[in-house]
Specification:
heterodimer; A: alpha+beta; two-stranded antiparallel ribbon; 44% helix; 21% strand; B: rod-shaped
């Protein structure tokens, strides 16, 4: 049914924002991590979202597009050096590189993700109410 | 003045034809209703699976809620169709002959 199409689109938005929240949680959890499996400090991650046609094979026919997280990228710029010669991860100059995670910007992204999730839920709720109102016509 | 006698052709030349149902309409409605019931059943099975999946941590929570809503709406639509049908039947049963 065509009403469920808007529900599916909103569901893709909800999934994308959930994944964004996961990445933000990862960034904030690793805000002081100085060693990783790849070596070096933890690097801030961010999600890349892409519009994908909701149905297969008719992307060129103007079908609605849902959102999908296609990639999670690492940002290796702006690692924060701190002078701490006693730290086991300090280099020969005595500086330790800390992750480039900024708690303020992460909190802003967190609120944005939360609001975007809420907006998608609002769309869903409106769609549901519209369908229920349509069923009330016959009453 | 001459009074013409009434004949069935004069009363309603096309009345007899309009009562004839279009061919296969009952079958079509039956098929439609059956398909709709199957769809609603499928939606409910899906939502069952999604709910257990999300309880087991394999699915996202909102997909379970969404499929529950879909099943709910589909069932409500089916119920309205059924109500209309019963209403029409009762209207016919009340008809004085």
């Amino acid at each position: 049914m065509s009403m469920f199409k808007s529900m599916d689109l909103s569901a893709s938005g909800l999934t994308a924002q959930r994944q964004r929240l996961d990445v933000i949680a990862e960034n904030l959890a690793n805000i002081n991590t100085t060693r990783t499996a790849q070596g070096g400090p933890y690097k801030r991650k961010s999600v890349i979202m892409e519009a994908r046609p909701a149905e297969d094979f008719d992307s060129f026919l103007g079908s609605p597009e849902k959102v999908e997280v296609v990639q999670i990228t690492e940002d290796s710029k702006g690692l924060v050096p701190d002078y701490d010669p006693g730290h086991p991860d300090a280099n020969k100059d005595g500086t330790v590189l800390y992750p480039n995670v900024n708690p303020v910007s992460e909190m802003v992204h967190l609120m944005l993700a939360s609001r975007a999730y809420e907006a998608n839920v609002a769309v869903l709720r409106t769609g549901k109410t519209m369908a229920q109102k349509a069923l009330e016509i016959g009453r | 003045m001459k009074v013409m006698p009434l004949s069935p052709e004069l009363i309603s030349p096309q009345g007899a034809q309009s009562l004839e149902k279009p061919p296969g309409s009952r079958q079509e409605f039956e098929n439609l209703l059956g398909k709709m019931m199957n769809d609603v059943n499928q939606l409910q099975h899906d939502s069952d699976q999604k709910v257990s999946g999300s309880l087991l941590g394999q699915e996202e929570m909102h997909t379970a809620m969404l499929s529950l809503e879909k099943a709910n709406l589909g069932f409500k639509l089916l119920l309205q169709v059924r109500n209309k049908m019963v209403e029409a039947y009762q209207e016919l049963a009340r008809m004085q002959i």
